[in-house]
Amino acid sequence: ILFGGPGADGKVQARVPVATTSGGGIVYFRPVLCFAPPFSSQAPAASGTLTCSPSTQLTEANLGVSPNGTGFTANNVEKPDTALEGAPSTSPSAHHASSTVLLPGLSSNGGTRYLLGPAQMTGTSIISAAARRDQTTGKWTGRWVVDYTTNRRGVAILDKVAEQNFHQLLAVELDGVVYSTPLIQPTQVSFTTFDGRGEIGGSLTKADAIKLAHAINQY
After folding, report:
1. Within a 10 A sphere around the Cβ of 41, how many other Cβ atoms?
2. Could you give the count of Cα atoms lying within 13 Å of 86 in the half-sphere of its Cβ?
3. Average pLDDT in the 51-57 region?
4. CA distance 7 to 136
5. Is the pLDDT of residue 197 over 80?
6. SS in 3 state form for the chain?
7. What does pLDDT average to over the chain?
8. What is the C-alpha separation between 82 and 39, in angstroms, rounded?
9. How confident is the model at residue 200 (pLDDT cuts 50, 70, 90)?
10. Contact at 8 Å (CB) between 4 and 199?
11. Residue 159 vs residue 15, higher pLDDT
């Protein structure tokens, strides 16, 4: 999934907003460190700082993303780190922008959780967001997405975050729930600017997309 910017063909796809909203919670953009299984009270309790074992780390080297002209290939690093099974998800009281957090995804993701690094960008960098039905051709036609445009300062922030996470996963989190974990520009050999525009996709329902746009627009 491409996180904003040009599509796989290098062109910026048309965006037709169908719902704009205002108000909501806190939106963070965080690097995805690794996947984690659902919490089990029967598993050994995790202690100390939460980390990912080397083989499950979603680093650029482990992912091995390789554009091939028509798409891309990548290593399968989707297996959750079982060492995190006994670690409960991060509580709201410990859920800070500067913290490493363990968070669940939307109910549609089958219970997978995510270990995320400190936030690298927040909704304050975005000036507007709109939920819409994807009208492009291909396998994702008809999915719900959120298009957004950054403010003037956010143009540089978005590019910095995206370049830091090039060929890696970046999570979009709202109030302790991971809404999307796109892979940054996997069909491109090198990073190119997002020009202040992005698209958040994945397995969003209409309600998910509207809620996320609603939260972003509060800023």
Report:
1. 8
2. 8
3. 96
4. 10
5. yes
6. CCCCCCCCCCCCCCCCCCEECCCCCCEEEEEEEEEECCCCCCCCCCCCCCCCCHHHCCCHHHHCCEECCCCEECCCCCCCCHHHCCCCCCCHHHCCCCCCEEEEECHHHCCCEEEECCCCEEHHHEEEEEEEECCCCCCCCCCEEEEEEECHHHHHHHHHHHHHCCCCEEEEEECCEEEECCECCCCCCCCCCCCCEEEECCCCCHHHHHHHHHHHCCC
7. 86
8. 10
9. very high
10. yes
11. 159
pTM for the model stands at: 0.86
**CA dihedral sign, ordered 158, 159, 163, 167:** positive
CA distance 152 to 209: 24
| Amino acid at residue number 176 | G
Q: Are 218 and 22 in contact (CB under 8 A)?
A: yes
Percent of the chain with pLDDT over 70: 86
